Amino acid sequence: MIEKTLLSELLSVAMSTGGDFAEVFAQREHTTGIQFVSGKVESILDQVISGVGIRVFLGTKTYYASTSNTTRDGLLACAAAVAGAVGEGSGHAVFDLTPEAIANRHTVKHYPDDVQTREKSDLLREACMAATEADARISQVKGAFSDSDRAILVANTEGLCREDRKIRTRIAVSAVASAAGENQSGFYGPGGGVGIELFESVSPRSIGVRAAHQAITNLTAAYCPAGTMTVAIENGFGGVIFHEACGHSLEATSVGIGASQMAGKLGQQIANAKVTAIDDGTIVGGWGSYNIDDEGQPATKNVLIENGILKNYMVDRLGARRLGLPMTGCGRRQDYTFEPTSRMTNTFISNGPDKNEDIIASMEYGLYAKEMGGGSVNPLTGEFNFAVKEGYIVRNGKICEPVRGAALIGTGADILQDIDMVGQNLKTGQGVCGSSSGSVPTDVGQPLIRVKKITVGGR
């Protein structure tokens, strides 16, 4: 992507004014996005993102510049710009880079460039038409197909020089059901770190049908009662609560500056003993997986919480300097225009000791949150508010009538302690997480869990 001699020269220029570490990040990414609305393809976006970012450290201060001009002159100008931000000087050093091949654990059968746009459109059309045809009350369907082929190169003044390539593919469908002047929505959007072979295991039709089913269920549901109650949260995207309310608090980006409720708590009991939580960037074909992160570090399986004890944080290079902890291969960025920060990859609560059927059977009265939606969280306090996209009342150990309009309200610290049953059907769901280094693909996940008490917003 960039010749070794030029990489060394860029690092030398970047370090010329007194920095103590420098890094070059190069990216070339080909993406396709197809939008389907009202029974037809509305738009197709095919683009290439190409550019370079150069970062310099001076202690725990960082300086960053990026450019889309990848000519030699353009790159040298970028290196000079970031060096100028560090200070003045005319030092010179030669950095010996050792290119290192990284084993690829992610097998791809069909690379995006080998698949015609028409075939991708047909897959999306199949998903959307399945939603439209699922019920006469489906009034609107929107769908999106996306894939990406991302190649990166990272080189730094420690001699590191590594490259990686990552493929991702996804279809997402949203459906609206209408009756008697009322509208309710449903959504499903599976993806993976693979090519279109993804749809050999998840049929496009099933995606559309699931989105439509959720919309119809909500259309016929009564409003959820409000109050404090026991809640069972289903697997897959139910893990979004841990991701948002707890996961961000374990990123070194916030821990390292004391802006996290989890700062200074390594080795302490922060959750029920049944809770083990992991961030694992090594999962084969994972939506949030990769071979190396955007700082060139190998992905790892990072045990964050083990049997309720806080074991580790997610630590990028800057976080390692601030906290004095090893890097965990979690430095991520949306693209070359962003400086990397510590980010989650595939983050989940592990399987526990409880049988799934026992979890529901244990509930005299409560809420079964089958599908979670979006929400908000304060990373400093851990306070959160999350919508339940599909929910059901539980009575006497049985799942009963559907309810809508429910929200789960609480704090990350409380919910970790109040998870008192953890099932055995671990599954992940796909999302896109936004933070200071942009939007990155992440998996969230868990088995079915029971929270013994939590505030449920409703009517």
Secondary structure: elements and pairs:
Layout: H1 4-14, E1 21-37, E2 40-58, E3 61-67, H2 72-86, E4 98-100, H3 117-133, E5 138-156, E6 160-179, E7 182-188, E8 191-192, H4 198-201, H5 204-220, E9 222-223, E10 227-233, H6 240-247, H7 252-255, E11 277-280, E12 301-306, E13 309-310, H8 317-323, E14 331-332, E15 341-342, E16 346-349, H9 356-361, E17 365-377, E18 383-395, E19 398-404, E20 407-411, H10 412-418, E21 419-422, E22 427-435, E23 438-446, E24 449-457
Distance between the termini: 57 Å
Rg (C-alpha, Å): 24 Å
Helix content: 10-25%
* Number of H- or I-type helical stretches: 10
What value does the average pLDDT take? 97
Poorly predicted residue ranges? none
- Shape, principal axes of CA atoms: globular
Number of strands: 24
Determine the structural class based on helices, strands and strand pairing: alpha+beta
Q: Largest sheet, if any?
A: 8 strands, mixed
- Portion of residues in beta strands equals 35-45%
Overall description:
53% of the residues are buried. This protein has ten helices and 24 strands. The protein has helices at residues 4-14, 72-86, 117-133, 198-201, 204-220, 240-247, 252-255, 317-323, 356-361, 412-418; strands spanning 21-37, 40-58, 61-67, 98-100, 138-156, 160-179, 182-188, 191-192, 222-223, 227-233, 277-280, 301-306, 309-310, 331-332, 341-342, 346-349, 365-377, 383-395, 398-404, 407-411, 419-422, 427-435, 438-446, 449-457. Strands 1, 2, 3, 4, 5, 6, 7 and 8 form an eight-stranded mixed sheet that branches. The mean pLDDT is 97. By secondary structure, it is of the alpha+beta class. It is globular. It has a domain at 227-457.
